Here is the input.
Amino acid sequence: MKKFIDAHVHVFETLQGFSGKGELRPIGNGKARWATGEIVNMIPRELGSTNFTIETCRQLLHSNHVEKAVLLQGSFYGFQNEYVVESAAKYPDMFLAAGTFDPFAKKTEDIYNRLTDNLKVKVLKFETSTGCGIMSYHTDFDVEKVFSPIAEQALRHGQTLVFDIGSPGMSSFQPEKIRTIAMRYPSLKIVVCHLLAPRLHDLDTLTASLKLLKFDNVFFDIAAVPANTQPETYPYPTGVKFIKTACTITGYRQLLWGTDVPSVLCNDSYTHLADYLEISDQFSDTELEAIYYTNALSAYPFSDRQVTA
Here is the structure.
């Protein structure tokens, strides 16, 4: 049986997102309303009404034969540092916790030090996107200038640094700045989320950006590639093409499978998000094993007790 690590999962005790659309208020049945009045589907009804707990997540992953997962964060669901860390501590053989914070907060240094020294966080994740990330509620900024000091600290403490820079066309889409950070800190492990979040017609931009970021220390999770290529549906041939392109440019060992649950499950099943690569017949067994499992062990600091042969 294949082994899986879901490299992009979210859990939240209470839905409390915020972005340039203001605060996100849960209104029941897995739906929530932004301060602008826009209503969005956040959680499939069968998985929760106003939250997606670690117990629900664990049951979902177990039922889909997922051995481990990385718990990432962002303002879409709301920062959940203590809950995420507590969740990973409750099931340490399965989950790895990522911390996050607003780099423009007045007490950034205190927050970072607590995450690192007290909560023992080994992964830091920042969504800078203009969609629902930091650049949606702050003015545009230079990703390299803002995050280089954090990258230096992360390297010193053996932390993996994760970025979601949004999609091509967004002002947050700054692969050249991630390139600068990767070159400056070649021993720092960097993960870029969503394979740079290309939409249906972004192949040329994706290709150019992947070439910019071809480094041994830069990995890409492929979570939400199917969601970002809508309205195309399962088995997502354009998404497969994007991932195959990445294999050609960066090498398959830089790619990490992930899903971005729970919101993506409002549009498709976990089974489809897991098997669309395999049924495409575009990837060898060796490539699939690496993408589904072993590459995540290289990108993320799972403990020895979490790693199985």
